[in-house]
Amino acid sequence: MVGNPYRLPGRVANVDSQGRPDNRTAYGVFAVQAIESNGTMISYNDDLGMTGKVQDICLENDIVRAFDPECECQLASDHLSYGLSKSVQDQILDHVISRF
Hints:
The model has no long low-confidence stretch (mean pLDDT 81). The protein contains three helices and two strands. The chain has a two-stranded parallel sheet. By secondary structure, the chain is mainly α. The protein has one domain (14-98).
């Protein structure tokens, strides 16, 4: 997964653009909306995340994926740049190939 707007912090599958554990405490923007409105949260099972079959990749400046209500300076444009990131493309390819 890349740019998951339903990101929940503290999950094993959360990684940054280099494949390192992403320990940020920020929630995805849709997760924030779902929590505030007591709405439906789309997610994957924690057990699936523990298997290594899922990687939830987040660019460091993606405010859709890791919403920061304290920052007024960020633009959502970083959310659109996953396809331009060689490290993310390589990480996805390596992850998919390792499953065969």
